[in-house]
Amino acid sequence: xxxxxxxxxxxxxxxxxxxxxxxxxxxxxxxxxxxxxxxxxxxxxxxxxxxxxxxxxxxxxxxxxxxxxxxxxxxxxxxxxxxxxxxxxxxxxxxxxxxxxxxxxxxxxxxxxxxxxxxxxxxxxxxxxxxxxxxxxxxxxxxxxxxxxxxxxxxxxxxxxxxxxxxxxxxxxxxxxxxxxxxxxxxxxxxxxxxxxxxxxxxxxxxxxxxxxxxxxxxxxxxxxxxxxxxxxxxxxxxxxxxxxxxxxxxxxxxxxxxxxxxxxxxxxxxxxxxxxxxxxxxxx
Length: 285
Hints:
It is a single chain. By secondary structure, the chain is an alpha+beta fold. It folds into 3 domains: 7-54, Uridine Diphospho-n-acetylenolpyruvylglucosamine Reductase, domain 2; 59-174, Uridine Diphospho-n-acetylenolpyruvylglucosamine Reductase, domain 3, CATH 3.30.465.10; 180-284, Enolase-like, domain 1. It has 10 helices and 12 strands. The protein has helices spanning 14-24, 38-43, 90-99, 105-110, 113-119, 125-133, 150-153, 228-234, 241-254, 265-284; strands at residues 7-10, 29-32, 51-54, 64-67, 70-74, 136-141, 144-149, 167-174, 180-187, 197-206, 209-218, 225-226. It is globular and about 60 Å long. It starts with 6 loop residues before the first strand and ends with a helix. The mean pLDDT is 94.
């Protein structure tokens, strides 16, 4: 099948992009950067945007930079940018680990980090990163800029706090401490398939004691999130396989798993517990 008719509106500056979006968003206008979700939906006649605001010509949105304690990722930064570390610390290494589980190489060459956040698929690896590390999303419109915390950004399956006339201009990821450890594990039936369960963990090892523990889950519920009760079980405790196993069991008990014709709740509960344990193993390696 082929996409329905639409009007194309290229932007060359950020101000031009938000002006175009203000004009066309009320008339079923959509932003396009990577297009790895929007284009297939249009080709299958699932989505029918009458207007597309193309931001690929906005150079300032194609940058990934370190700004103090943040890694700033612009709206046109491709997944492939993270094939190599974009910053010298643990965060750069973590993003390089995560990116190789995203779909296939052609999609990574075109799809964007911010596009994943705007789409908010429960199985998105970058959404899990944002939720676990406490990213801040910067939305721009003709009214100005506003910053949205990760805890407020995700509002269900493919639903976010972004208004229809707002552009997700950048994501600000807090950089991890130099002595932090982080690990990621994803389970899918085949390489490149959607994740059935994934976990991201981060912590500081203070002479064998866990500090600043973060445990995030994705792919198992309607949106990614941190599991506070499991984090509390490990914070200030000695690092041990037994402690991690108990925290992983607490994660399994805490989630409200999605179900479909291929995967029931019991299976996903088991998967996420395993994913947490293996993410900790990755972090310790």
